[in-house]
Specification:
The chain is extended and about 65 Å long. With about 200 residues, it is mainly α. It contains eight helices and no strands.
């Protein structure tokens, strides 16, 4: 039998007191930090709920048609949107769509610059890739528990968990996309006077 070196009860008490102290000291600061995202989410939510249902369905149908160029998919997505309304789930669907829109905006605003920086620095890439691996392999509930502990159940923990889950593929794809640009194309752009940022 392995000898007991650390008393689990003492360790648990120390961790609990440290977490309590962190929540007391930093909860207000963290809430103030995430306040703009909450306002943005509430704006999207009220906008989507306030817009006429037919306008939202027409917009989603147009986006689907533009993105896929397949009328069968457009008809399928439009039918599903009608079904959500017919089942009485329209407002809940709009709240979920608002959450996804805000999370997408945050993920893009954070992920693309980090991906660009990673593509320019092998050292940064070596540091960030293991973090991305952990973020992608951990279940989203692992992120949700500390967020709920800090902010309580609500929209902010959902935004945090979704963004943490969505950012790694965006960062990786941005990094790979820039790294895999053909050297001849880079030479040609440099020859035509493009800067490094361009």
């Amino acid at each position: 039998m392995f000898p007991k070196i650390i008393e689990a009860r003492d360790l648990r008490a120390a961790i609990d007191s440290a977490v309590d102290l962190f929540v007391v000291e930093w909860a207000d600061t963290l809430e103030a930090l995430f306040e703009p995202f909450l306002h943005l989410l509430n704006f999207f939510e009220s906008s989507l709920i306030g817009l006429p249902w037919w306008l939202i369905i027409a917009t989603i149908a147009a986006i689907t048609q533009f993105g896929s160029r397949r009328w069968t998919l457009t008809v399928f997505v439009t039918s599903l949107m009608f079904l959500l309304g017919a089942m009485g789930l329209w407002e809940d669907s709009m709240r979920t769509m608002a959450l996804m829109l805000v999370c997408t905006l945050i993920s893009v605003a954070f992920g693309i610059p980090v991906g660009i920086m990673m593509s320019r620095s092998d050292r940064l890439r070596a540091v960030v890739l293991p973090i991305l691996d952990v973020m992608q392999t951990m279940p989203s509930f692992v992120y949700l528990i500390p967020a709920i502990m800090l902010f309580g159940p609500g929209k902010i923990p959902a935004v945090l968990a979704t963004v943490i889950y969505a950012v790694p593929p965006l960062i990786r794809l941005t990094d790979l996309g820039i790294r895999m640009v053909d050297e001849e194309i880079l030479e040609a752009t440099t020859a035509f006077g493009a800067s490094g940022m361009q």
